[in-house]
Design goal:
- This protein has 5 helices and 25 strands.
- The protein is mainly β.
- Strands 1, 2, 3, 5, 6, 7, 8, 9, 10, 11, 12, 13 and 14 form a 13-stranded mixed sheet that branches.
- β16 (286-290) and β17 (299-304) form a beta hairpin.
């Protein structure tokens, strides 16, 4: 949904702070090769603040540590429902090709802002990943789906959130809980810490162990103005109460920022979507970023990951061209799949028009030449995530929102 944003990628800021320990690369050493893309790590908003990880630890000492399975998913407040009629009112929709499983958002329970997840125009779902990405299967014995949302217009100052959905129980009513993404903040020399909402687009998500990587377009506030990829730490999640809960807009749990990567070396890549690739034999896992561009093909770029979940050196390992209006991309072996809008109809402005056509799935065999049509998707398709011969996707428009899975051709 990045075409609806009013902020665009402009002159890049100076190189961020460097880190040179624990498998982290030194950003100042990252220089993009011709035709490549470089990312530099940032661990703190400025020299006057402690690292985000240290600030998050200070928060955990003051608040109640929270575990994803034992706490967040122990008694989720919300439950999904059936997918309903895929034709969607005007009759221009269609059941996704090789549809396998899906659900809609809770039709009854309002969020802390008094809004229904399936109908709100203040929050838009964008990214999707699963515990298959994060751990190769389950977490704490549960299959979990993670969906990113960003606040829109008068809710932009409320930041971004993640929905954690437990799909191991009743498949017709999967339980889920929202968690607010935050930036922990602690001044150097201070023994107290606070947090602020993360003002970012949250256009895609990739689950990598205890890190949730979120792709974000340029934001309004530092340190998210440049856009890039931000990592939030599940090991430092906390439960909030009292004044802290009011500061968290009524959410019970907050997930703190740990580190982020920013464009470096003059790169103009738009980090529109994000996925994880675990499918390359004898190759490291990697993050795959794709661009949404209107009327022209976007770029898809890969960065390798270390076993600890950090980028190995910030240098892109591979890049290729996708299609126009792409909202999500995954690499699967030697191939790639793209979720795209038809005619680029998307975003809050088009929600009233109900984005009249079904989305499109593209298959890019070998990633040479041009992609080929491989099927239809629900109206308003967004990010993709790979899951053992299947793809997860989601639809973003109010009143038409679903999370679903499709089978790939054999």
């Amino acid at each position: 949904m990045d075409s609806t944003r009013r902020t665009i990628l402009r002159g890049l800021a100076a190189a961020p702070l460097a880190a040179a320990a624990g498998g982290l690369f030194v950003p100042s050493a990252a220089h993009a090769a011709p035709g490549g893309f470089a990312l530099a790590m940032r661990l703190s908003p400025s020299q006057y603040h402690r690292n985000w990880s240290a600030a998050a630890d200070t928060l955990r000492h003051r608040m109640e540590p929270a575990d994803l399975v034992r706490d967040v998913l122990r008694q989720p407040e919300r439950a999904g429902g059936p997918v309903g009629d895929w034709r969607d009112g005007a009759g221009k929709g269609a059941e996704p090709t090789r549809f396998d499983y899906g659900f809609s958002w809770d039709p009854d329970t309002k969020d802390p802002h008094g809004k229904l997840d399936g109908k709100t125009a203040q929050w838009y779902p964008q990214g999707i990943s699963t515990s298959v990405d994060g751990y190769g299967g389950t977490v704490g014995g549960r299959k979990v789906v993670a969906v990113s949302w960003y606040g829109y217009e008068n809710y932009e100052n409320r930041g971004a959130r993640i929905s954690f959905i437990d799909v191991t129980g009743d498949p017709k009513r999967p339980r889920y809980q929202h968690v607010l993404l935050v930036e922990p903040s602690q001044l150097q020399g201070s023994d107290t810490a606070t947090f602020n909402p993360v003002i970012m687009h949250a256009g895609g998500v990739a689950w990598v162990g205890n890190f949730l990587y979120v792709a974000n377009l340029p934001g309004l506030l530092a340190p998210f103005k440049q856009g890039g990829v931000s990592a939030f730490d599940l090991a430092r999640m906390v439960k909030v109460k009292g004044e802290d809960k009011r500061k968290a807009f009524g959410y019970d749990y907050i997930l703190p920022l740990h580190h982020l990567y920013e464009n470096q070396g003059g790169s103009t890549l738009r980090h529109s979507q994000l996925s994880l690739d675990r499918t390359r034999r004898n190759q490291p896992h990697s993050l795959v970023v794709s661009e949404f561009l209107e009327g022209r093909r976007g770029r898809v770029v890969r960065w390798n990951l270390s076993p600890a979940g950090y980028l190995t050196d910030g240098q892109s390992d591979e890049n290729w061209m996708s299609e126009s209006y792409v909202q999500g991309a995954v690499a699967v072996g030697d191939d790639a799949y793209y979720a795209a809008n038809v005619r680029g109809r998307k975003g809050p402005e088009d929600a009233r028009a109900r984005a009249p056509k079904a989305g499109r799935l593209w298959l890019h065999q070998g990633r040479n030449g041009r992609p080929e049509k491989s099927g239809v998707l629900a109206i308003g398709p967004e990010d993709l995530s790979y899951d053992a011969g299947r793809l997860w996707c989601l639809a973003e428009h109010p009143g038409l929102r679903r999370v679903y899975r499709i089978r790939l051709r054999r």
